[in-house]
Amino acid sequence: MTETAIAARGPASNPAPDAAPADLALAHKYARMVPRYTSYPTAPHFHAGVDGAVYGDWLGGLHAGAELSLYAHIPFCDTLCWFCGCNTKIVQRYEPVASYLPILLREIELVAERLPGGHTCSHLHWGGGSPTLLKPEHIHALGAALTRAVPLSADAEFAVEIDPRELSAAQIEALGAVGVTRASLGVQDIDPVVQKAINRIQPLEITVAAVERLRAVGVTDLNVDLVYGLPYQDAGRLLASVEAMIALQPARFALFGYAHVPQMKKHMRLIPSEALPGPDARFEMAEAAAARLVEAGYVRIGLDHFARPEDAMARLQAEGRLRRNFQGYTADQAEALIGFGASAIGQLPQGLVQNHTPIHAYAEAIEAGRLPVAKGVALSAEDERRAALIERLMCDLAVEVPEDLAEDLEPELAEMADDGLVVRAGRRVTVTERGRPFLRCVAALFDAYLDPAHNRHSVAV
Prior knowledge:
Layout: H1 3-9, H2 21-29, H3 52-60, E1 67-74, E2 76-77, E3 89-90, H4 95-114, E4 120-128, H5 136-149, E5 152-162, H6 169-177, E6 182-188, H7 192-197, H8 204-216, E7 221-228, H9 235-246, E8 252-257, H10 279-295, E9 299-301, E10 305-307, H11 312-319, E11 323-325, E12 328-330, E13 336-340, E14 345-348, E15 351-355, H12 359-367, E16 373-378, H13 381-396, E17 398-400, H14 403-418, E18 422-425, E19 428-431, H15 439-444
Parallel strand pairs: 1-4, 1-13, 2-3, 4-5, 5-6, 6-7, 7-8
Antiparallel strand pairs: 8-10, 9-10, 11-12, 14-15, 15-16, 17-19, 18-19
């Protein structure tokens, strides 16, 4: 580490308990580049052979009256967070956002025209980018357009990703008025040194104020996103963030590992590589944060989520009905997830689709009356089988290995069992608590597409 980097760290933070040497050895051994498995097949295997016309047929083939899940993507932010891997565009004025909204509303109409009818929405999610960049009148317009296309069911969840730094009283009132029930707050880390290094200055008092004001308008189900592996971060600093957020009593936490991929996201080059914690430090801080959340009464959900025992996500995990889609772990049980907006992904029984990412290409398709799908993949029977295996493994930490795969997977599973990552009873494989941090590596065994020599995924641990 350079002298500049050492100076930037500031005073040493409180240490966390060290991870066992054996576990650190596993962190090195299984630091493999594997997908996050928010879909299968994963996005690198989408292709242009699935276009808007195919997607339109798939929409028409949905069951009439089925419950659907809807996602709306707002691909704009007013500042660039250097750690961010999302599809977003930085804007200094509101005009591009205002111009985007009518196009988004038209896409909603185009999709609604192709649906069989009678559908209700059980889960509505706005993501980004930054949905809270929207002015109040556009929050109302988007909410009305979506619920007009697919009315909300009586017990629907309506979630919005929140940037506390840009949340006005009028915006909060609008979110409450359109029926938002859950807010997901981006926090990442509360330490000023870490925040400066990722270009996201967010004093704790701003987050606390946002929580109080959201609850005042009835948005009482709150999620908090934290990130480990950030520059100048260590276990003590991360635990300070965890403690501050536990005090706010959110229903859920997400604890994500920072994926440093400057070859794909050029702005990540602004983060000095020498400031990034190494594999040992990443592993230690992730495990320390997870242990503290469990100690505080949160149920560990799959790989990287935590929920109060009474939360729907915890209940569904206990029932073996937890789901996983491109948003991560979810309580959503809908037949299909329909994505709106530039770069949005949809997941239907027939396959997966993704809209054009460049906003101009997305807009051109819609203005021509076409569904703006750039690529996708139709699911074969084998894809469906492996997708189900991977989803159950990611959600339940256990799976019954099909007989026809058991022989091929035997060497890898035997090695993982010897390492203590899994236990086996016949063909049933269960991931242990020791193996939980390496869950993506276990899931990758069932991925027929994965080519370790040519993938660009993030490191698993």
